[in-house]
Amino acid sequence: MKTVSKAGWRLLTRELAQRRRALAFLGAWSVLESLPALFSGLAVAAALDQGFLAGRPGIGLAWLGALGLAMVLQSLATRNTFPWLARIVEPIRDALVRTVVEAALRRAVDGEEGADGSVVSRLGRQAETVRNLVAALLRTFRPTLASMVLALVGLFALAPIVAAIVTPLVLLSLGLFAWLTRALAARQREMILAGERVTRVATDIFDGLRDVVAGGAVDTARETADRALRTEARARLVLARTSSLRTLIMALGGGVPVLLILLLSPWLLRPGRMTPGELVGATTYLVSTLDPALRSLTGTIASWGRQLGVLLHRIAETSAPSDVTAPRRDIRPVSYDLTVTGLTFAYGPKADPVIDDLTLRIPAGRHLAVVGPSGTGKSTLAMLLAGLATPQSGEVRLGGVPVTHVRVAEVALIPQEAYVFSGSLHENLIYLSPDTTRPELDRAVAALGMGELVKRLGGYSARLGVGGPALSAGERQHISLARVYLSPAKVIVLDEATCHLDAAAEARAEEAFAATGRTLIVIAHRISSARRADRVLLLDGTSAQLGSHDNLLIRSARYTDLVGNWDHQTTPVYPHVWWFPIVPSISPRGASR
């Protein structure tokens, strides 16, 4: 843990080291900013002993005027520190976000469990918090520390006997606080980890909400979220209780010295020891500079510093190079039959499976439609078939090879939310196939019925913004479909990827993919997708049935109801039932024949 903590501070110091010039100017202005702390006690002592108590008020006012001038210079210096502060702290957030993003992408590629919703917490909240904390510490800790050191220097110059009494108490207070800081850092880290767990649990629940409801895991999800929230609340309470010990430490270094000086003042004012002005000047150092500085150091500033250390530790911890090696996805299968064996998946160890012991085989080049009520695991199955989710048991193989080991280019999944990146239309279309020729591109556009879209945008060179703000949802889906159509993928999974297209455009897209001879799996949005498919897999949350559209209308009341809900009309009975003979028997708990 110490190594990771040092790595966190190294991460910050590396960024600060790149701004040495700004730090040098900031330090120069800090010296001028701290002059009143050095001069205050000396000026008050001289004003009393040489001025007011000596019957020369003019000299006393002159000394106080000099102190006022030092304060004016302090204000000017403080004003000039802000531009240099901005040059130091503004780039820090960008550097931390870059570090976290690179680590998150690396972990996602490596298939680590850490690549989840907690990354959002670190990226958004923690990186911004680090930037704010660095700014606050440079703005506050820097003048406070400088003032404290210069006040002690002034105190030694003015009243060495008082300095000898005060300095050990201040150092003891700082030492005790350093000891307490370790415990506070541990409590702070526990609180941050608890907050990340709340984010992770909430993300998992909301991402799989339909499956949670369909699987009857609402109570389990509620209990899981409640445990995470209670753990975070306990962590916050423990941190608050530990932080309360700071009050005693601040009193030891700030209040006790003042009390001692007041109690010892009759002895200190004896002839040959101190003058009244020196005693008041020494008290000025204690009351106006040392005590506030110590309270700031052990209070707000220390809290910021501790929080900064914990956040840097967490960022360094999660951004460190991983020991996990991702499965090599470089195998080209000899065939493209997709085989699912005993596949089971549940959102959490106590939740009911949304996919339960599913076994089926999809021959290469076939067209399968997956239908079922909302929340029955259709999108989950799409993720499993693409190798993007890990089942609790069972496996998915492509040509006899685990789908998680085949080349990434072999399987393509298009989700409902289409992705369009900033660039030209041409770049968006050929992203997965950069060697695409112009004739190939024209044929793909024609096959998918995108000619009007290309014409409206002004040709392939048209620029698209991030997310395609000038495009409709259907147009964005069309671009995603064309991108995958041009790709070398042999297995295409459409997870409601045509839901924003009209029925005719959807039919044209599915028929275009089917005509390429590649395996096509469609998570159906309309019943027409099931009618076009070679086979239909019905998921109802408790079982799975496999057959043709006609066959399922006869065998499955659930499917008949589903078709009726889609069509809003009476469903006829189809006498002709057919099967592909190469499909083997399906396990009882999987898709039934």
TrEMBL record:
Keywords: ATP-binding, Membrane, Nucleotide-binding, Transmembrane, Transmembrane helix. It is found in: Cell membrane. The chain crosses the membrane at residues 21-48, 60-77, 149-180, 248-269. The keyword Transmembrane applies. It holds the Pfam family ABC_tran. GO terms for molecular function: ABC-type transporter activity; ATP binding; ATP hydrolysis activity; ATPase-coupled lipid transmembrane transporter activity. Residues 24-292 form the ABC transmembrane type-1 domain. Its main location: membrane. One of its GO terms (cellular component) is plasma membrane. It is a multi-pass membrane protein. Residues 338-566 form the ABC transporter domain. This is ABC transporter ATP-binding protein. It comes from Acrocarpospora macrocephala.
